[in-house]
Amino acid sequence: IEEKFQDLTQETRDLISSLPSEKGWLVSQMYQFQGRWHTQALLQGLLQCQKHFEAKDSDIILVTNPKSGTTWLKALVFALINRNQFPVSSGNHPLLVTNPHLLIPFLEGVYYESPNFDFSELPSPRLMNTHISLLSLPESVKSSSCKIVYCCRNPKDMFVSLWHFGKKLAPEETADYPIEKAYWYASLENPNKVLFVTYEELKKQTGDTIKRIAEFLGCGFIEAEEVRGIVKLCSFESLSSLEANREGKLPNGVETKAFFRKGEVGGWRDTLSESLAEEIDRTMEEKFQGSGLKF
Ligand code: A3P
Prior knowledge:
Belongs to the sulfotransferase 1 family. By secondary structure, the chain is an alpha/beta fold.
């Protein structure tokens, strides 16, 4: 995908010309900034976000690497925090008619599309998502008491998921800096601020993980029936069969069905050769060594 230089602000153009760059796979060129590789568009969104986003103590920010379960986490937390306004068992839940990405803003995406977007207009608690690394988060996110839920996924499944998604289009970034490691340490150092969950545990124990998220977010008591309702409403089978997710499009043109492929753990075995899987294992070993983080 060719990104258009003329769509960028002068500030991004100036910065880009000073950054290390490499030919990209999904987009023509990638740029290294604060330890990670970015597309032009998401780099501009990130810069705007760093400059303008003011976190509030009541904010909830969902952080993931692309293809790590963002859509699922968005659906789960949306259902959880809005369960009084939208009972999960009601037949007219917003998630039944709207793709999760249209219900929860993607910070750097919104800032790229609308540099002057006013996040202060969103009702409280504001629920947002981002792929920004811990290092690059706007200062106010770190200094406020806002909550971060970080979800990571086995890098081999994430890689395969990204590869299939990329074939369907979409300018996304490939991760070089191990974002997982930074959030993992942040969650250990400050467990009230950052909750670390994995796609794999969400798959294995969806209900228990929702309860952990609810406790972390201070959502109060949640009935077992409600937890079951959220699990069912947000399941791969349920979300992927809805018209809003089969037929819809995001404002940037990405088809909503691209976010629902297989939703499995360990599916990388169908796509990766043994030697490529071993290479990824070696890189993971090197990057996560000594962190205590296991996939
Ligand atoms: P696969 O490509 O392995 O199937 P993201 O939302 O971060 O873009 O991640 C997309 C991945 O999450 C895809 O993985 C997709 O199928 C999976 N996914 C989407 N919705 C899901 C759900 N409700 N439950 C489980 N997995 C889901």
